[in-house]
Amino acid sequence: MKVFDNDNQLKALSAGFGLAIFLAMVEAIIPKPIPFLRIGLANIPLVVLVTKLDFKNYMYLALLKVVGAGFVTGTVFSPIFLIAFCGTIVSALVMFSVSRLLKDKVSYLGLSIIGAFFSDIFRILTASLVLGNSLVVMIAPFILFTGILTSIFVGVFSAEFDKINNFENIYFRDSTVFEVSKSKKQDIILIILTVFAVLFFSLEQSVLILSVEYVAIVVISLILKKKVRFLLPFFVVIFVTFFQLLLPEGEILFNIGAFKVTKLALLEGVRKSLHFCGLISISALFIKNNIDVGNSINPVIRNGFFAFNKLSELKLTKKEVHLFNYVKYLNNADVSVKEKVTNKNFVIYITVSAVFFIAFIVTIFINPDNFL
């Protein structure tokens, strides 16, 4: 077991933060037969970095992971966030304690299983208290069983991931390399606008409004000469909607042989697809590579956003899976583009955030069923 020095800890923390919220966003689009069921993909950075960070930075990573995941999945103001928060913090405390007590005698697989078990226990307890629903207790054995199975996958993957990715070799370009904006207030405002845009887009449930907002994001991105990927949404919609239809729900629209296409399952698949593709597009539209918000949180937040933004641009190839060669991918990421945020751009960003907010309020006061 080797704890990194402080500089490498901050770099690993940033990389872990960016990877965690990206994986949380990926997991959010995977259909689940039970609401509380989870794979735990976003826990991979917590498992890999448990022996490399000190207690303060490790718990900081756990906090960033759960809050960031709450924002990108739109659960930050819901009971689900409280349930996830308790599970994540307890899991992190247990994994850190076990790793320090047993040191090299425990593997990533063991840490993942132990962490998942305690996380699920506290998630079940929190859910039963918050929701007051006996159904949670009834399905607890199933949640614990599936949690063990998924934790085995997370532990095995984490071990292989750690073999390939040496986080001591990761480097983020120092802020002096970038064309830092003259006013840090400008970058702080940009981050706030990004948070609001992500939040209200994630909370939006109307498929019609989400579709309009997504098209608007794409059009604005083209106007501002941002990179737009058209094939990704197409494949995501097909993949996510197909697997969502395997969990039939609601009125049967039509049959394809023995396969039933149901209304609610279809809408849920499209909704998840729009959330996933929309959040990636918002990231590309709002986030600059050279954000500077001051010395206190700059190393973590700025580089974490950079890592997340680059992961959202990755392209899987036969020769190299970028997500698996994460450190190499980040080190080779293109940071040559210098972007100056003009007043015109700021007006557009503020308008987008305001429109998302108004649309969200509309769906609260008007029956969402009217908007699909």
Walk me through the topology:
Blueprint (H helix, E strand, L loop, with lengths): L5 H23 L15 H5 L6 H19 L5 H24 L5 H24 L2 H5 L1 H25 L19 H20 L3 H17 L7 H15 L6 E5 L2 E4 H24 L11 H14 L14 H6 L11 H23 L7
Antiparallel strand pairs: 1-2
Helix pairs in contact: 1-3, 1-12, 3-4, 4-5, 5-7, 8-11, 8-14, 9-11, 9-14, 10-11
Provide a descriptive summary of the structure in words.
- This protein has 372 residues and is mainly α.
- The protein has two domains: 6-169, Arp2/3 complex 21 kDa subunit ARPC3 (Orthogonal Bundle); 179-288 and 342-371, no CATH class.
- Helices cover 66% and strands 2% of the residues.
- The protein has helices at 6-28, 44-48, 55-73, 79-102, 108-131, 134-138, 140-164, 184-203, 207-223, 231-245, 263-286, 298-311, 326-331, 343-365, and strands at residues 252-256, 259-262.
- A two-stranded antiparallel sheet has the order 1-2.
- Strand 1 (252-256) and strand 2 (259-262) form a beta hairpin.
- The longest helix is centred in the middle third of the chain and has 25 residues, at 140-164.
- The radius of gyration is 21 Å and the shape is globular.
- It starts with 5 loop residues before the first helix and ends in a 7-residue tail after the last helix.
